[in-house]
Amino acid sequence: MEGDVQYCYLEFQPDQEWFQPAHKQVVAKPAVTHELIHQTNLLDDGTAVVLFEIVGDVDRITALLEEHFVALKYQLIVRDDSVFVYAHFRTNETIYELLRMFDQHEIVMDPPMIYTEYGALKVTVVGSKEIVAQAIEEVDADVSFTLTRTGSYQPYQRSLFSLLTPKQQETLKTAIECGYYRDPREATYEDLAAELDCAVGTVGEHLRKCEAKLLSRLVP
């Protein structure tokens, strides 16, 4: 059966820490530029497993995790500009209720989930607005939900773009709109810097990081 598949873009704002107090310690540091949850699953015993990524200074991130992160067990996968964490942890009430929401309703999460600087978690949920609203209504936990956007779901495109930081997203969108990636090229770094009101070197840095992040996921 063909037809538009709908998505809803949600923000969750909990009254307590999401996974544990380590989150607050990590994201408050200037060495961290982005934190993403790629996948998390609830197990039968009420515990959960998670795969998340922290982007930034890997030495500082690793040190912060070793000092503050608490889990039943975890492993670190270190890359050039990020640290992946695979962990088995005990859930609190909020996490348990939110993960159950996806098991009990006709909705699925399109990862990654993204932490904001103000402690919320941005999530793309695939499913009708009506079913998402019903699922939210049945969550028995102290969480505030904000529905920021709905529309027709475009697979993969949204997931890739969400890997970028807000500044990288803004720079890439401006570059595309101004014709930087057209052939022949219709804009320079200087043009983009004027549009974004930033330094020319900042434009170059953001675009190089965008290209490295996105292209590495396109090539098998």
Extract low-pLDDT stretches: none
**End-to-end Cα distance:** 31 Å
**Percent of residues in β-strands:** 25-35%
Count up the domains: 2
Q: Which descriptors would you attach to this protein?
A:
220 residues; alpha+beta; Arc Repressor Mutant, subunit A; 2 domains; eight-stranded antiparallel β-sheet; 8 helices; 8 strands; 31% strand; globular
Overview of the molecule:
The protein is built from 8 helices and 8 strands. Strand 2 and strand 3 form a beta hairpin. The mean pLDDT is 83. It folds into 2 domains: 6-159, no CATH class; 164-218, Arc Repressor Mutant, subunit A (Orthogonal Bundle), CATH 1.10.10. The chain has helices at residues 22-27, 58-68, 93-104, 129-137, 157-161, 166-178, 189-196, 200-218, and strands at residues 6-14, 32-42, 47-56, 73-78, 82-90, 108-115, 121-126, 143-152. Helix 6 (166-178) crosses helix 8.
